[in-house]
Design a protein that fits this description.
Blueprint (H helix, E strand, L loop, with lengths): L9 E2 L23 E3 L5 E5 L16 H13 L6 E5 L11 H19 L3 E5 L1 H7 L8 H4 L4 E3 L2 E6 L2 H6 L4 H24 L1
Parallel strand pairs: 3-4, 3-5, 5-7
Antiparallel strand pairs: 1-2, 2-4, 6-7
Helix pairs in contact: 1-6
C-alpha cells in the first residue's frame, strides 16, 4: 500500500519572536519557523534548521529532509500525530552565516519550547544538533551516540543521523529506522511507567 507524505501544520512563533533579530539570520530569512506537527505530542524531534518549505511558485512543498524523516517514522511504526518537529535554528539560512553565534542566539528559543511543551522524549538528528545540545562533549558525533540515551533539560534525548545524510547514503536507512524504533520503545516504556506511578 502506497503511503503519501504529509505536510504537517506549522505552529506560529510566539508573539514577539516572529520578529526576532538576535542574529544575522534575521536579515536573510523569509520568516521564523517555530515548529510543525502536533504541539502536544509526546515526542519532540529536533533538526538543525528548517529547509525549503515553498516551491518557486510559493506552493507548500515537502523537502527531502521531511520526506525521509516521515519514511523513517513510518518504518518504525510512529504516527506523525505523535511527533512535533522543531529546529535548533528557527530560520532557514539562505547563505553563509556565523554558525556558533546563530546557535547561541537560538538555543533559548528551543529551551523555552521544551519547558513549555514538556515532551516525554527528545530526539536529535545530526552532529550539529548533538554538539549544540551536549556542549560538554566537543566534537561528539551521532555515530558514537546512537543506541544510548542522554539528558537535556531533565528529559531523555537520543540521537540519530540527519535525514539528508540518510538520503545521500541509503545504507544508513537501516540504522536510522533502528534508532527510531528505539525512540518508540523508550516512549512506550516511559508511558507505561507514568501509568503505573
Amino acid at each position: 500500500m502506497e503511503h503519501s507524505y504529509v505536510i504537517l501544520p506549522e505552529e506560529p512563533a510566539p508573539q514577539g519572536i516572529e520578529h526576532c533579530e538576535s542574529c544575522e539570520l534575521s536579515k536573510q530569512r523569509s520568516r521564523v519557523i517555530w515548529g510543525e506537527g502536533n504541539p502536544a505530542a509526546p515526542l519532540m524531534l529536533i533538526l538543525d534548521n528548517p529547509g525549503a518549505r515553498e516551491d518557486r511558485e510559493g506552493n507548500s512543498f515537502l523537502c527531502g529532509t521531511r520526506e525521509t524523516l516521515q519514511l523513517g517514522l513510518r518504518e518504525a511504526g510512529i504516527e506523525v500525530h505523535d511527533v512535533y518537529v522543531t529546529y535548533l535554528l528557527k530560520c532557514r539560512p539562505l547563505r553563509a552565516y556565523h554558525k556558533p553565534e546563530a546557535r547561541a542566539a537560538c538555543l533559548p528559543h528551543l529551551n523555552s519550547q521544551i519547558s513549555q511543551k514538556e515532551p516525554l522524549v527528545l530526539f536529535g538528528f545530526g552532529n550539529v544538533v548533538a554538539e549544540a545540545l551536549l556542549p560538554g562533549r566537543e566534537g561528539v558525533s551521532v555515530k558514537e551516540l546512537r543506541g544510548s540515551w542522554q539528558e537535556f533539560q531533565a528529559t531523555p534525548i537520543g540521537f540519530t543521523y540527519h535525514p539528508l545524510a540518510v538520503r545521500r547514503r541509503p545504507n544508513l536507512l537501516r540504522f536510522f529506522v533502528e534508532d527510531l524504533i528505539s525512540l518508540k520503545k523508550k516512549w512506550e516504556k516511559l508511558e507505561e511507567k507514568s501509568r503505573l506511578s
